[in-house]
Fold each of these.
Amino acid sequence: MKTYRSTHLIKPEDLNHHQNLYAGRGIEWMVEAAFVAAALTHGDSSGLLYRNTHQFSFNKSVEPGEIVSYYSTVVRAGRTSLTVRAALIAEQSGELRAEGYVTFVTVKSHTHELVAHGLELDEAVSQEEQAWRDKAERFFTG
Amino acid sequence: MKTYRSTHLIKPEDLNHHQNLYAGRGIEWMVEAAFVAAALTHGDSSGLLYRNTHQFSFNKSVEPGEIVSYYSTVVRAGRTSLTVRAALIAEQSGELRAEGYVTFVTVKSHTHELVAHGLELDEAVSQEEQAWRDKAERFFTG
Amino acid sequence: MKTYRSTHLIKPEDLNHHQNLYAGRGIEWMVEAAFVAAALTHGDSSGLLYRNTHQFSFNKSVEPGEIVSYYSTVVRAGRTSLTVRAALIAEQSGELRAEGYVTFVTVKSHTHELVAHGLELDEAVSQEEQAWRDKAERFFTG
Amino acid sequence: MKTYRSTHLIKPEDLNHHQNLYAGRGIEWMVEAAFVAAALTHGDSSGLLYRNTHQFSFNKSVEPGEIVSYYSTVVRAGRTSLTVRAALIAEQSGELRAEGYVTFVTVKSHTHELVAHGLELDEAVSQEEQAWRDKAERFFTG
Amino acid sequence: MKTYRSTHLIKPEDLNHHQNLYAGRGIEWMVEAAFVAAALTHGDSSGLLYRNTHQFSFNKSVEPGEIVSYYSTVVRAGRTSLTVRAALIAEQSGELRAEGYVTFVTVKSHTHELVAHGLELDEAVSQEEQAWRDKAERFFTG
Amino acid sequence: MKTYRSTHLIKPEDLNHHQNLYAGRGIEWMVEAAFVAAALTHGDSSGLLYRNTHQFSFNKSVEPGEIVSYYSTVVRAGRTSLTVRAALIAEQSGELRAEGYVTFVTVKSHTHELVAHGLELDEAVSQEEQAWRDKAERFFTG
């Protein structure tokens, strides 16, 4: 599936008291990046509601002045849900700093009644993409 | 374990384009509320780092003008980690609107080297608290 | 009367150029905490309008990384007004850092016409609570 | 004394759930405007600490799209304190919407030890300015 | 034409990773200050739409704790447009730190159809004001 | 040259009083997107200072709920400067909503002394890219 990218410069307003990226800000941006990927894949931003974050894990802190991007890809399509995997990458080093999985549901835009989206995943283009899909599946099958 | 409470009035700056609480804002607040519970239980806010959100699921939307609280409780104590369960409750109706689980690790404040915190959970005071602990455990044992 | 609590972690975005909690942010949070106490005591957040802050005094500065709570209690009930006392407490030391008094008026939610709220204060549970009530009274009697 | 002016356009991010200017935002701006007046009158922004808000009363609500200014004037000079009166005026109608009084103390910039500022008020240029001074005085003499 | 003034205290939330005023914040404030000048000169904030920034150049950085004002003046009146010059001045030193030119168009408030505003510039009160007008003119005649 | 992309969901906190994207927010994001393109092209975010915005013109308003991206490309390389062209595109319609040109200078990171960056533009890959370069050139040659 297509990967979307959302880039941020880390400024003092984004920091915690350790002077690196505040997790609350990082997760807010991740949810927005995941929404964008789901909405652009789905084609309709008004018929999509947030349902759940399954993971947002930090591997390594992000420093002020760094430029980071969230790379977001739909990795699971249920009948009325879409799950997105988002990776937080530091642009200058290429390092993975954080990783998340978020699920949205597709609804009628006024009543918010669940509605099938009809989307199917295409073929995974890499073992990595397949691994993300397998991981997403496990959040649902437990 | 002691439950901490963090309260917010929902204002226009907190909304999404459906005119209810934006999930990105809701999850940012949840991370902060969970941090507060972990830090006050641990006794040291400088020796605590965010590691992972295992869940942040919305059950029902939150409207502008509503007053909501995050009720946060430590529900798992690993050797160098603390997991917090946070419930987002609408104060006037008492309804549960969202629920989350977040893990922090305990570190030396300057080097960020992992360090055992020595905390143990007390006895659960209710079946509900035990259920939260069991659920948190399953995020670690898969 | 019941005391409500609203907790914040102090982050860089909350600071002034002395690198401690900016008074403008501290007073914004105090007004929100006082509103929450008035609305939950009154039972209706849409029929309450801000009228006046009588005091918001800082005793000692608040540092980044500190966790602080506003403890807010209704301390005066006029015919169409409610006055709240809010204390800003540093959670780890227990110190009082700031103290404020705010008055709201009760109105019909669409016309904003003043309307009697019918609330009466219960008996003060401590000399401290009585002292807050006496202080609030003096803002009105001069 | 010289009056300073600080102007804002009211945008959706500044509103409460009644869709007019949120009091928390209005009072944050008032504290900043009062600080500016005190610092520019005193000549040193690093030697000035917030001490207390004596009043911030709203007379009439402010609507989105309105342009408002805070007009701030030093109205009392204690030995180590300066009190500022700030008026919130709607620019297009000229109406007074809110009014506040804030006191700052003058300190040594590193130790925060109180230090006399040596400022004296000039002669009031109007009965109005004298009335503000008299009012400020009453916050101190009770 | 009348000059309007909008003042800000530089706080940590306004900084870039070099710890001085972030250009993105500085230019956002400039656009707001220019809008205020255009709207108050025009007399109607609902019939004015942003069209273009022709310049926003920084000469020298702004430090935390500094107090700065935007001084904004209408310097060009097309048939359906108003161009504003805004200067960012550090209040304590009087230095010019940045300078900008912004054009707004006048419209019917509901349809956003262009409408002649009927305003004409008065006589320039100084060579400086004339120089701003000449400069603005060159953005249009290119 | 490589084009960088930065994506945003339009939320109520980003709106003006006409309920569409506030120009001040749009231009703040444009400056950040342009900085990201310049820094990633240059390879060093600490040696780059904002100098000037030559244009940020809105063609058509942006509505809440829309997803927009800034597409940013270095289009001019002076000896110690880089100029970026940024286009604001609505993702679902593909429409160009706004366009900007911003110049940064390259400096030694501690002294902020101008330093040659040694970058040269590659061959333009399209007539469109060449047109952006020609336009940028005209901001310098008048």
Amino acid sequence: MKKIGIADTTFARFDMASAAIDELQSLSASVSIIRYTAPGIKDLPVSCKKLFDEKNCDIVMALGMPGSKQIDKQCAHEASTGLISVQLMCNRHIIEVFVHEDEAKNEKELSILANNRTRKHAHNVINLLFHPDVLRKHAGEGLRQGFEDAEPIR
Amino acid sequence: MKKIGIADTTFARFDMASAAIDELQSLSASVSIIRYTAPGIKDLPVSCKKLFDEKNCDIVMALGMPGSKQIDKQCAHEASTGLISVQLMCNRHIIEVFVHEDEAKNEKELSILANNRTRKHAHNVINLLFHPDVLRKHAGEGLRQGFEDAEPIR
Amino acid sequence: MKKIGIADTTFARFDMASAAIDELQSLSASVSIIRYTAPGIKDLPVSCKKLFDEKNCDIVMALGMPGSKQIDKQCAHEASTGLISVQLMCNRHIIEVFVHEDEAKNEKELSILANNRTRKHAHNVINLLFHPDVLRKHAGEGLRQGFEDAEPIR
Amino acid sequence: MKKIGIADTTFARFDMASAAIDELQSLSASVSIIRYTAPGIKDLPVSCKKLFDEKNCDIVMALGMPGSKQIDKQCAHEASTGLISVQLMCNRHIIEVFVHEDEAKNEKELSILANNRTRKHAHNVINLLFHPDVLRKHAGEGLRQGFEDAEPIR
Amino acid sequence: MKKIGIADTTFARFDMASAAIDELQSLSASVSIIRYTAPGIKDLPVSCKKLFDEKNCDIVMALGMPGSKQIDKQCAHEASTGLISVQLMCNRHIIEVFVHEDEAKNEKELSILANNRTRKHAHNVINLLFHPDVLRKHAGEGLRQGFEDAEPIR
């Protein structure tokens, strides 16, 4: 049985992990899920590494909600850079799901965005684990997570 | 007994380490604390690494107060990037507590902020070590350190 | 027989991988091609690493189409940094083919650009594998991929 | 006897190494000093690494004077990032002493700044090697190198 | 006999490698030179690493000409960061010779700059290999490559 790690934060303003777990379980009965909550997004890289090294996860979702200030953008950049390093150290995927506070016009839209993006990326996780052919079929099609897909161009 | 490292600087304008140690000791009788003071924030990554490798700490708090100039922002960015690298090399958490001089309106507020943020993050350290369930319970709740918590969104 | 990896994304709005494969096959009968599709450009570094480590590719093309927003630029930067790290870990080339949405005036031009750049870089891949002398012959000649070549200066 | 490495550049416009060596020797009779001069600041990371790996230095001072243009700022950033990496690879401190040309109003002030900052950091080197308690005593006191110390806040 | 690697690009608009090789050969009869041409500057880090690991070079010159657009600046930054990483992995120097298109007022000046900077840096290469004392003698003297030297300050 494949193990999926979920790393999330107390800083986020939406419980993205519950959305992720709900979607993953609806998509596949044959996965086990391990959740690890850290304070903020800069704690996610080592949290993901521990999920790989200590919990033997096959893939991890890193869930975070950076604020709208310049320093928050920088923290997100540092976290993303670290998440890429972890993937290269472990040869396994981390699907980063970051929802920036200033992506939405208001809190209602922000919660919808956080929920949708997380669930869409749960599909990516399942496809990377079990259905790489589905990803290949949609290559170059402008798929997005959270808002509308973009149109492919010909 | 768990060992907590405290890395701080002579550059900072507030004795964050004393606040950290005071709070940690009030939260748990079963930790030992090792303190290491370096000149500035760019010296923190290797200081933390030495606390892990040479002092066998289980977790480290990295305490710093970047100035308000552009070059200070860049130093903070470099230090943060290094702190993430150390965590990935050692598979242990570093809780970064940086207080930027321009986050507060005046020195009074800055000292309150530095004190509060450090103490709040001391709780995160104890929770990561002993109570991961407490962090999980507060996932997605918009917790902040230093100023007011943000509101969770539904 | 040399193995060429192709890493692409579902985020891109043009099927760059098909253009790459078509061009590579027209250039050389003696290569085998392995394709790996991931969700977005930040998933490309580990995808390329897996193509080297798990599929034993000799060289990889990393194909992506970053959007036009600031956050897309940052993702592209993080992805590029990761792609360089992978090359240093594996001692093999990754030819990065990124087409930024705002490089073209309209969708028609964007699709032409994506197609041309991908095919031009396929030549670089074949030259790195089989004809390093051809690259050396064109050193300093201002070669470009996608738009017109620049003029060499004397 | 402790070995201190001094890495400096031909790009700098002030002989910071001579100031460093003079100050170090006045502070301690029990150190040996090894100097290594490279062309520019981006050559400092590997120079420091060689001082650790090939000359077995216990600590290194990295001395540089970035220019005032945007590209110089970026070079300084790249150099600093590299210097942090070296420290983590070697588990030893590098005290970075960078003096930016635009920190001073004129050449006279610049030379005073370069001299003062270098000498003040020489004290940090000696304290890290022999007197960590002195650093700890001054933690959070707003110490600066080159200009006036900042005031601690309460 | 010392081996010097030359990594250059087809993107550059001036044949910097020929200038480098001509200057190196005029400076020393006791070096052998190995040239490796890649498409662009982001291909230089792994090219240099291969020159160290597969060709056993003692030092490498990395020659490139970034364009004047923002994306070119970012590519140069990524390349430089990678070149520093290679040096730390191999404990050997890479002398980066980058000529930015917007450093010169016109093509004539650009070609003179590219030629001069490359040749001046060839001297640095020879000095690092054979005459470290010459570099030390010029420490802090404001040496530049391409334009006029800066004045040392006292």
